[in-house]
Amino acid sequence: MKGFNCSTASDQSKRKKCSTTSDHLKSKCSTTSDQKCSTAGDTPNTEIQNTNIAEKSAHAQVIDHYFKLFEKKFGSKPDFNGGKDGRLFQQILKTHGKEKTIALLDLFFEIKDDFIENTGYTVGVFKSQINKLIIEDAKRRKKKEEVYR
């Protein structure tokens, strides 16, 4: 498992192992100029690292939501390629944010669409159908607004 080896000790055997960025940024492994960090040979920038933690949190929430919706609909876990599918969700999150992505996932599993049904509700299909889902979402919101007038 990749992690951070941080310590002011020069002796490798006395370095603490932190398996996550979150642990690394906590007080027990905060980096200073005299500490060594084995990840990419650089001392991480705490401000950048904290931003990444927030993104990972939204990222993890969206992936969890996708898994829950898939399991609810089909009674089984989806085939999920962490690298490829994870990157697709990161791109979607960057463009649409967490709340909109979750709403679009809900619609993705709710909408009656032959293409989506025949291609297996994959993350790749979700990404390819984002514009269709956004349009459908806008239509539904417009209908709701007309009903309440």
List keywords for this structure.
149 residues, mainly alpha, 6 helices, 2 strands, 4% strand, disordered N terminus
Question: Can you characterise this structure?
Answer:
The structure is a single chain. This protein has helices at residues 21-25, 46-74, 82-110, 114-118, 123-128, 130-147, and strands spanning 4-6, 16-18. By secondary structure, the chain is mainly alpha-helical. It has two domains: 4-41, no CATH class; 55-147, no CATH class. Strands 1-2 form a two-stranded antiparallel sheet. α2 crosses α3. The longest helix is centred in the middle third of the chain and has 29 residues, at 46-74.
Question: What form results from the Cα inertia axes?
Answer: globular
Distance between the termini: 57 Å
Task: Please state how the strands of the largest beta sheet are arranged side by side.
Answer: 1-2
- The class by helix and strand makeup works out as mainly alpha
Tell me the helix content. 55-70%
Main sheet makeup: 2 strands, antiparallel
Mean pLDDT: 76
The rounded Rg comes to 21 Å
Outline the fold blueprint.
Elements: E1 4-6, E2 16-18, H1 21-25, H2 46-74, H3 82-110, H4 114-118, H5 123-128, H6 130-147
Antiparallel strand pairs: 1-2
Helix pairs in contact: 2-3
